[in-house]
Protein: SgcJ/EcaC family oxidoreductase
Organism: Novosphingobium cyanobacteriorum
Amino acid sequence: MIGSILRALAGHDRATPATPADGMPEAGLTRLGFLKLAAAGTVAAGFATSACAGASAKPGRVPPVTSIDDLYDAWQNRMNTADLEGLVDLYVEDVTYINPEGVLLHGKDAVRKDFEGILALKPQIVLGDRRHILWQDVALTTNHWRMTYPGADGTTQVMTGGGIEVMRKQADGGWRYIIDDASRSASK
């Protein structure tokens, strides 16, 4: 395909007459040659776009959250929609995490297991009073949260607390938690 584009640009495309009446090759492309070139370019661009998208997207990987201001909304949305993989993607592999009950956990796998249990409750969370302080590629953040979920008896249960987190901007431009203290003690 690239060869046909180069031939068309060089005027060697078969749709371009080799010699006009005066015996000299025409400069430029004929209308048909131009249309073939445009079509080939469109097809090539489509393949290149598909190839680039396939190369940059890893299966199961969500796009990184590149704005620290959007990180709270992304976390809240992923929790409220039970997007386990999207939620876990907001953490680095070796994250230190303290869950709402005060249990210290290490690593994404431990966070995933903890979130599986929380998401089974079908919670809805609101992160309020959000604040962050930036230093280069590191952020210290705080928030207060309110989580509701259906109790075993059908009544709405409410849990409140606070979070203190440390996030770092990663090589892919996304902000991810390196330390997350979601325990209720963080709000005291």
